[in-house]
Amino acid sequence: MNIIKKQSGAAFKLFKGQKLKVIDPEGMQVSDMVLFNANDIGEKLSSGKTLDFEETILITTNHHLWSNRGSQMMRIIMDTNGRNDFLLAPCSPETFKIMYNIHDYHPSCFENLYTSLAPYGIKPDDIPTAFNIFMNVQFGQDGKLKVLPPLSQKGDYILFEAKMDLIVALTACSAEDSNGGTFKPIHFEILDEMV
Amino acid sequence: MNIIKKQSGAAFKLFKGQKLKVIDPEGMQVSDMVLFNANDIGEKLSSGKTLDFEETILITTNHHLWSNRGSQMMRIIMDTNGRNDFLLAPCSPETFKIMYNIHDYHPSCFENLYTSLAPYGIKPDDIPTAFNIFMNVQFGQDGKLKVLPPLSQKGDYILFEAKMDLIVALTACSAEDSNGGTFKPIHFEILDEMV
Predict the structure, then answer these.
(1) Which UniProt keywords apply (chains A, B) (predicted)?
(2) pLDDT band, residue B193 (cuts 50/70/90)
(3) Which residues of chain A are within 8 Å of residue B33 when distances are taken between CB atoms?
(4) Which of A119, A178, B165, B173 lies deepest, with the highest CB count within 10 Å?
């Protein structure tokens, strides 16, 4: 079991066929995830391709995460909570300035993603819109978006299968409104055997 | 008046303060638009940042289009139709294979964007999710997405103001379902004076 401490991040390789289990150990904690093709980092996770090819805003069990080149990167095998977001960008210094009026330093998923990914040659401008695991963004017919506390409870998890060799980055999200006002860790496991 | 012929594209510079009018001259025709900072092409249009900071899926009059670095790229001054999409990726060869089962060559917004942008040093992998002007993507509370014919009528337009020096690429969209089954041109004007 790997632990991502509150308001931090991690990056690692996940090979084709391996499985990744991302767990909310305490409940009500978001994890932003981005993906890159481990053999060619110009290919990366795309919200636009995923929403297009899956024909839904709400990505969960049996959906695939797709790349900017139109390839499947991961399949979601199981999602015990069932509410994730793929609309909103990772929280960043600009998020805290513009949405929270916080002008001093504040940890952010954007910083935690690009610093974790730097050893792989990935730069801040390369970070795409993340798949925001456990994030509860509600929308109405008028299109208005509301960020509410996650519905995930202690032990909820999402299990992915890699469809290509991947570089994966995960965070324990740093935005107050996205996490019910408190910051908790995220756990993850890499599984080689069939599950 | 500049004309983008059916199933083609164009790219050009738009300087800070200049205005861009994108017109549907016959009605029911989508135009995909992407933006880059003309002085640093690592900065580009971001659907995730725009939906986040504008707090809505439906981007129209008085909203801004934001970059991956959290800066305003354009403001929408006027939108006579009022329905645009910022969820779905530009149609691409993979779109026609996966969504239409067309395996032969088919023109696509993705190809028209990257070939138009090639003279500016922009590569296919750099193309972000486009702002899909006049595109009518409906969504329900269950998240399911439906691409319907555009609601735009002959002469409908959207007027943008550049908030930084930009490289703009526009298409006349090539996907059957997005354009009511027929392909039409798109017109655009660049305006220097106050409008």
Answers:
(1) Methyltransferase, Transferase
(2) low
(3) none
(4) B173
Q: Considering only residues 130 to 149 of chain B, which have any Cβ-Cβ distance to chain A shorter than 8 Å?
A: 130, 139-146
Q: For chain B, give the mean pLDDT.
A: 97
CA–CA dist A129, B19 (Å, integer): 28
What is the domain count for chain B? 1
| B47-65 exposure pattern, b = at least 16 Cβ within 10 A, e = fewer | bbbbbbbbebbbbbeebbb
- Is pLDDT above 90 for B195? no
CB contact under 8 A, B95 and A52: yes
CA distance B122 to B11: 11
ipTM of the complex: 0.97
Domain coverage including residue B95: 2-191
C-beta atoms of A99 and B47 within 8 A: no
Chain A residue numbers with beta carbons less than 8 Å from the beta carbon of B69 are 94, 125
CA-based angle A63:A69:A73, to the nearest 5? 35
